[in-house]
Amino acid sequence: MGKLSFSLKPNFLGLLKFLNSFNWFIVFFSLVNLSVCIYEDQIGKFDWRQSYVGRIKFAQFDTVSTAKKIIVATEENVLAALNLKTGQVVWRHVFESASTGNIELLHVAEKVVTVSGSNPYLVRGWDSATGVLLWEWSLTLQNNDQAEFSEWFVENSALVHMLPVFGSHIEVSMYNLMTGQNRGSTSKLPALWTNEGCVLSAPYYTCLSGNPGSHLLISMDLTSNAVQLISKPLSQLITNEYDSSLRSLDGNSIVPGFILGDKKISMIKNNEFDFLSVELMDPSASVAIVDSSNGLIILQIWSDDEKGFFITGHSLATGKEVAEIRRPASGLSIPSPEISAVTCGTSRDVQPCRLLVTAQDDASHLLHQNGRVVWTREEALASVVAAEFVDLPVSDLDAAIESEFDQKEGSVWAAFSRRLQQQWQQLRTFLASLQAGEQRDHSQPLVRDYFNLHKMIVILTDVGKIFGIDNLTGEIVWRRYERGVDASRAVFYTRRHASLLTVVAAHEETGNGLIISFNPIDGSLAGERRMQLDTRLLQCTLLNKPDQEKLHALVLLDSEENVQVLPRSAAVHVDNTFMYVADKSTAKIQGYALRYDGKEVVAQKTWSLNLAGGGAGFGPDGDSGAHRIVGVWPKPSAERAHSPGRVLGDRSVLYKHNNPNLVLVLTEARDLHHKESWVVAMCVDAVSGAVVTSQVQRRARALPLAVHSDNFLAYVYYSEKHRRPEIATLELYEGQERWLEAGAAFSSFASNNKMALVSRAAYVLPALPAAAALTRTERALAARHVLLALTTGAIVEVPWAYLEPRRPVTPTPEQREEGLIPYAPELPLPAEAVINYNQTLHRITNIYTAPSGLESTSLVLAAGLDLFYTRVAPSKTFDLLKDDFDYYLIAIVLSALIVATYSTKYFASRKLLKMAWK
Amino acid sequence: MKYFVAHIILQIVLHYCVAIDYDGWLDIKIEHSLNCNTETFCSRGNISLKSIRSGTPVVDQILFTKHHIEEIKELASIDGFYSIRTLCSSPDNKEMEFLSSLKAKAFLDSGLSDVINVWVLPNGAVMAVNFQVDNSSQALSLSNNKIHSKFYLRYVEQAPVPDTASYIQKLEREREAREKGEVKDNRSFLAKYWMYIVPVAIFVMISGATNPEPAAQAAR
């Protein structure tokens, strides 16, 4: 045997060599396996999706079909049917997001009819049960300038289009609803009395007209054959006519009417104004007139800042209050409510009234007539501005252990007694948790789990509503509505780990800085609470050094270049702090150095770049040839780089250029000489203002999509030459030798006029992306993948190995050994790499990623019209057991083995004893 | 043919180096914040280029006086910044302003030597002017109070486009190779298929070794 193995030895080595030479093959196969898909039974296990429709613009109850629904049309250009009982989306159509998808009219009868677009208009009919398109015809108006003032309504199965030319006439056209046939061509009704303040309460068009002091209330039936004017002097109706205004009734009121001067409600009946005996209960009240078993009812809803939300109902005939419809003040908070739709059971079946109420915070509530909330839809989540994954606080038990190890001072005996105390405490809390566990095991306490997979997602929306969402279930834990917040450029800052989060935004009216600090776990205000600054903010940042209370101070730079530090006591810590401000339209970037001079923090402007390249800035026509900044991408804060270099095939190391202050700036310009647009990418050191590298794409348009991390960056642009999206990737290297000693801190000022080696490449993208992000893991050990959200509604995970600019066209054996994939100009986007499998996500605007406690796993939240959360494992779940791991089998086998070992031991000893006796 | 390819490559390289389709003069006025009596910035010198394409500059800078040195030492003592403002003029643009700063201490230590990087777009527009302390060489003496500036004109490079041409060429080459037929493999049978034979042999061997040898047991 020994001889044989000796003679085989060289062959063994040969086999190993052979395997080695086929290394690249193995690498290739492992990459093929990188496509991480989930199994069918894992659907919904790690991910959730929430569908939204946006702020409701029009809504109508569909009472005709058997399954009761509400048909809604929204500001986000979505037509959808909501389940009446649960509020779930039954079907949904997402139109174009531009003005071409704008919904102008929703009419629900047997079929759902919409008018959408802006000259040309599309009239479509939909089946209310399934949402299937039944018919469609288009309509182009001759008078394009006035088209935006168009009003539409449906009367007697005819679509009426009304176009007022203010101060002159009204054009009224009627069309067949199904075919678009013009019934009796356009008629021009003379109306000198029209102005911008007129309201349409179909079929009447009502205006306040005339000279100040002698106002007339004029109304006209648009559909009658003979022109009939109803008019009444205003002075007879209200005493103070200067603050009079007209407002229409809400909630698809069944009789034409209007509200005069936020006070009086009027109907138009038999060509006469009929002022009701019931007055408006509150100037801001929303009013609807609805048919019910008790005859016509006037419903009013309003909200009081202190007292809360009210509903009242009055009978139209008698003017008496309906007892059942009443919601006196209560804790329910619905800011500035509006009746979107209302329905009451008519005649025999005594169904109560139900109201769909849309509030200022974009939330829609379905209310019972007594004010009970049936369901609530938080439509603000359809427009997410910023999101942050927040770690949950550790449990009391873990906190006690941590605090014990924090205390270093004291003698051995003190430490020992403390240990004993802690142990006693731990035992007590454990027993307490056992007792309490039985009572509240369904409501998990919000504490950190072992792998830190359970987090709180804090979301800031466009209307200024902030949500705290449990990332495992997708449930909204808390919500907080802040009035008057211009959230368009708001930023989140984690001030103190798991207990203080700050939003820096602007005030809606003044544009001044607005700071809201709150506890991210329960949503209660904390720290500075809500703080209104009296200046506009240019830039803000966090101090990376926390104070004694582990609070990171907020440093704010205002438009007068003054610096504020919150809290003030932290000003002494400001040292070596740098900021940059980029102006998008003028393409100027300025850098500031902040220093504490003993009294206050001062900002000194240290560098400025003018990326506009000499033009005078973009003019109103946007075509002056100067560059404008499309976006600025710094490296993610608190990011780790796991290795300083890459090992090449020949075992040498290519060191990365890891400048933590590097910022990618993308600009776009139109070159006037060549009539083409350029995309310029610049990597700027944000501390010294030095340009590290730059490149220009000709005949291309920039898209605000880029990723930047470690020593690599990638950005997407649209090639006008080839009419396709492409992605440019760059990697920065120092070369085979380090510039600095290993472990030396990087300084932007200690430059040694070496230029970083840049490897660049570009790839063709077979689909148009709408958002891009990088996966993030705790220690950056796992591979980095780029997540591309496509306009098709898929999120594709692309390994960086495919985007790598060093991919060679014809690889040498060394490059193969290194694991570089041979270059292919087109980037593969395989269907297996779609992380949201068949759940199409509409209009994704942002992807947010966060690391979890598991090195393999990165948490992903995609926001757009829908919210989608999942977790991805870029290097596969190397630190996790498989989902279907058979614990029982392993346990049984192990215990059986142990039993077998001991029993055989026993039998063996018996046998030995017996043998000894022989 | 070879020479022709080489020529093309040379042309491409040349084009890449001077990736600029515009030529013209460039004048850079340098101002700094030292020893200026009333104003914030006063002149430090001037750099002028006859042609952006050739990139040869004419640098003309003032000598530092005692006042300058004193002031910069004062700045260095508080670890302050020595700020430089540049105004670039070209036929298309007048006086584009850029600002850059050096750590005063580092500038003093390096013997008043700095590196000036000017980034230029292919259409000749200046995008950035940076000053950096030059500490690559050993510190120069401060004796002559002269500023040692190294000037670099850097062009914003043309970014690569998806390289379809060479990929198609590679595919063509591979196809041609396939059409020509595989290279005749005239190795011996064993040399060709040893990797299949060896595992089988090993398997046979291992299974042979693990089999109990009945003869030996019988002997016991």
UniProtKB/TrEMBL annotation, chain A:
It is found in: Endoplasmic reticulum membrane. Residues 38-147 form the EMC1 first beta-propeller domain. Residues 709-917 form the ER membrane protein complex subunit 1 C-terminal domain. The keyword Transmembrane helix applies. It is a single-pass type I membrane protein. SUPFAM superfamilies: Quinoprotein alcohol dehydrogenase-like (SSF50998). InterPro entries: Beta-prop_EMC1_1st, EMC1, EMC1_C, Quinoprotein_ADH-like_sf, WD40/YVTN_repeat-like_dom_sf. The keyword Membrane applies. The chain crosses the membrane at residues 887-908. Gene3D superfamilies: YVTN repeat-like/Quinoprotein amine dehydrogenase. It holds the Pfam family Beta-prop_EMC1_N. Its main location: endoplasmic reticulum. Keywords: Endoplasmic reticulum, Glycoprotein, Membrane, Signal, Transmembrane, Transmembrane helix. It comes from the Eukaryota. Component of the ER membrane protein complex (EMC). Belongs to the EMC1 family. This is ER membrane protein complex subunit 1.
From TrEMBL, chain B:
Residues 1-19 form the signal peptide. It is a single-pass type I membrane protein. Its main location: endoplasmic reticulum. It comes from the Eukaryota. Pfam families: ECM10. Keywords: Endoplasmic reticulum, Membrane, Signal, Transmembrane, Transmembrane helix. Coiled coil: none annotated. It is found in: Endoplasmic reticulum membrane. Belongs to the EMC10 family. This is ER membrane protein complex subunit 10.
